[in-house]
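Hi team,

Filling in the usual template for the complex we talked about on Friday. All components are listed, including any nucleic acid strands or ligand strings, so the model treats them as one assembly.

SUBMITTER: L.P.
PURPOSE: interface mapping
COMPONENTS: three
RESIDUES: 845
SEQUENCES:
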Amino acid sequence: MAQIIIQTINGLVNGMVLAMVASGLTLIFGIMDIVNFAHGDLLMLGAFVGATVLTVTGNFWLALLAAAIVIAALGVLLQVTTLRPLIGRDPLTTILATFGVSLVLQKYALWQWGPSVRQISEPVPGHFTLFYLEYPWYRVATALLAGLIIGALWLFLKYGKYGIWIRATTQDRVMAQAMGIPVPLVHTAVFAIGSAMAAASGVLFGPFGGVTQTMGFDFTLRAFIVVVVGGMGNLGGSILASIFVSLLEAYAALVVSPAQAVIASFVVLVLTMLFRPTGLFVPTPK
Amino acid sequence: MTTAPAARRTPSAVGYRIGLTVVLALLALAPLVLPPFWQRFVTEILIWGLLAMSSDILIGYTGMVSFGHSAFFGLGMYGAAAALLTVKPPDLWLAGLYGLVGAGVVAAFVAYFATRLRDIYFAISTLVFSQIFYVIIFTWTEVTGGENGLTFSQPRLSLLGLGSDRFTPVTLHWFVLAVVTLSYLLIRRILQSPFGKVLESIRENEARTRAIGYHIERYKIVAVMLSGLCAGLAGVLYAIQNKFAAPDFVFFTVSGEVVIFNVMGGMGTLVGPFAGAAFFLLLREGLSRFLTEYYLIPLGMIFVAIVIFLPQGLLGFLRRRLNQ
Amino acid sequence: MLVLDAVHAHYGKSHVLHGVSIEVRAGEVVGLLGRNGVGKTTTLKAIMGLVQRTGGRIAFEGRDLAGLPPHGLARLGIAWVPEERRIFRLLTVLENLRTGLDRPGLSAARREVVLEKVYRHFPILRERRDQAGGTLSGGEQQMLAIARAMVLEPKIILLDEPTEGLMPRMVAQIREIVHALHQDGVAILLVEQNVPLTLEAAGRVYIMEKGLVRHHAPAAELRADHGVIHEYLGV
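RESULT (copied from the run log):
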């Protein structure tokens, strides 16, 4: 019983971080039909930038902010140079292009920061007793912070002036342009927001597992899974799916090794695609 | 995707035959004149080219991008390993059979889903499937050797009724060349048949092809099976050449490289992927001398540039230049 | 104000406009009549830069529209009400209007005035302002589409078959709004199948056939002599 409660908390915490990663991915897909293979690598680079800033300044929150800004700028650069020329081509070419970008970013990180694992120390000290465990407060704080960031994104999309521009462009690019919305700029901005969210998740996740140049692929894969399970381009669905899949993996880890527990999420994906290809968490289209 | 099939464009069947003969002759002579390192290198290009060609059946002809070819390749390797480790004396043909069965099982699995999924959903699902097999192989240490993989001795080259002999680098190269050439001719033949035309029509417009009355699901299943078996065969050859099977070869990196070979060489041409594999491996060889593992930085950039500016790949680009 | 001079356009390989010349002067209501598929909608899309223009010139207030980004037209004062209405279905009515209201350079006070004016013309939209656009009836969607164009405070509105499929009561309301816009000095290029409405609302009328303008006359002339209409439209 104690174990189940511990794993529930773990699953929720991981789920919130994953939700943050996936919401950037699904936002980008929804508006531009781009499946961003480099999303996890932007997360990884963000984590490295954060770790570096942390070493220099000693301030975690500054590191978080700096990582988000730097990676957002990188996102703008990537979108303008590699994705804008592909507008109007088969969406599959965007997977190919971002896959190439992912290779470059990963090896760049290796070149810049080396192969060893970087540690990011927890900015929120202290533990509380959870049954037989000393559970770090930082993990709880991370879940809350991720929730806040996702909530802020949601409020922005719902009520913000530019949020309405983004939603209008997602629904009808041509009509949005006719209404005077600068669609190319909206695309670039959304890519920057998605990149910044990935970077921030990387920094938040840093204290859990350390930062390595290979961590990106794992996140890309998981984000793909939850975005498909939640319904491509559906923000709320991706968030629910993140929590669902993470909880499932946490419970599976009670039975099998953590390395094998990921198969649980693979199975969910396969079942979703078989029985509900539009996603688990969207109403059936009428 | 938007690549035209090779067959329609080749100037003439005669020119094609002459070209093919010359290339095959050069490839057959290569091990006799090349130093050992390059001997091995050319053999590897053939094996990777075969793997890339198998993926081209899906990417180039049917319009389905697979990011999971490492699973077929890897299961081919582990299948061969199973035959070579369990059956005494190790038998070349049995290794091939086991490898094809291994890849075939995975291909059947993927084919079952392939009929229901399209575009990016297919791409993501192949990626996820290959990771399932990777995790199983990586963690099931008792059977697969886990992280360390399996090592075994090379089988003898036995030609039915003609006796058997140890492989030398040269005979191995010829063996690989023969298998690859036969596979290429077979696949080409299949893709030029009415069956291949239906696949192309699925790529161009799936809904229309269905409306004409074709049972698209069956065609996709066959395409995936064909592709998977062909990739498994490449895995068997690689296992025989290198005398080991390792989980690294089931990992996504291999699938990614396969996609790179296709895009670089030119999708939908069958020979393009070979050219892409040769180009990539040569470039890697050249670059990694100065850049060690960072060779992927310039190579990745070249790859992205090709996606954007040369959607037909290098071969398609050259062909257009020559035709001008 | 808006001048199309021998405009050619292609959909992929098929040639759909064969040199269309139309002029709309400031504050004028101009009708564009023709049977289905003669290129009326395409003409509007060509103005909006949504079809590949292969020849000719389109100018607005003396300025060539070629090379202008698609979102630049709204800033110049050109609004489009497409035939399919293209409401942002998941956005509320108010949010649909905000896509045009939230533009740089529009003061908060002015914004209120514009919104009030639109609500005065279409009281139903005020009632439904927090309802998703996709849940409105066809007639209400048409009103929203026109209202959405109006909040841009355009100099000209390209109005594509606004009465198509509407009940007579709604058609009357569209007629009123066209009249009100005209009173306000907004020019309108009206594409319609409804001949009586067009002849009543418009000052001049162009009649298209097979991608070309075949006839051009003051509406009063066509009202008096029905022969031309009968010849080209069969009514």
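MY TAKE: The mean pLDDT of chain C is 91. The longest strand of chain C covers residues 14-24.

Thanks, L.
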